[in-house]
Structure prediction request, 336 residues.
Amino acid sequence: MSGCLTPGVAALYARTALGHVTREYPNKLDHVLGGPGDVRGPRALHPIFFGSFDWHSCVHGWWTLFTLLRLYPDLPEAARIRSLADELFVPDKVAAETAYLARPESRGFERPYGWAWLLKLAAELERHGDGRADTLRPLTLAFARRFRDYLPLADYPVRVGTHYNTAFALRLALDYAAGAGDHGLAALCRERALRWHAGDRDCQAWEPSQDEFLSPALMEAALMRQVLGVDDFAEWLDAFLPRLDRREPATLFQPAAVSDRSDGKIAHLDGLNLSRAWCWREIASALDGADPRRLPALEAARVHLDAALPHVTGDYMGEHWLASFALLAMLAPDAS
Prediction:
């Protein structure tokens, strides 16, 4: 299947991420001012995650680097990744990132997208066994607590295709909870997913919108694949997207066009193509080989990857974050 990660692609993505995780400007802050003393720059506010245009992109830029380091420990960029991590992932900088969350003005900081990516990063660090997961733990536990406090208050899902999408956040939070043995968080994520989505039927898939990087329809399906057993998922999918075997809704099978990659919002659509490929692969991996929906799902993943992978690097508005979504797609279960 197209879109397999190779050492050459891994090195390209590592060089790209190293070029932006410490690039402080331009920077789009998610920062509520409580007074004149809060007027500070990105590095002063966030001594680890100050680069990559915005906080959450820096977090998943680091997830990209650590993931590549684990998969290809002999990368030419490996020494630079380790050296930079040794400089930044230290207790005093973690304490400063954690203290930022204690500000009354920070209650909604990066909810829920940045929360989910921080937990995804923490889950990756646990796989390395080098102590960095322990160093990051105060910040990790603070974000896990935020999920536990917020989800009982969230009566409704957020179905948009941008940072506020709750299906994406739960999907990544479940990855963390499984690896960390956080059974309480896992149970809460599953309970909320079922409450929000178990009864969803005949999705019309009114997408894409102009600046989406997530598919509201497919992201929900990828979450439910994680929450339900194989048989229950197949039955749920039959009700939610009942005409997938006929490649309907057609919009889910057609990659989005990207008219201007120098426009950060329009460049989101490259991410939509990548995240759709990720979701299609996950959906296909849960379907029996004889299921008539499986082949269309795999073909949709392929065409979306083919449309997006040539554009992961090249313009800063995309390359400060797209490699993470390329990895999600390329490392998804390959059911081909």
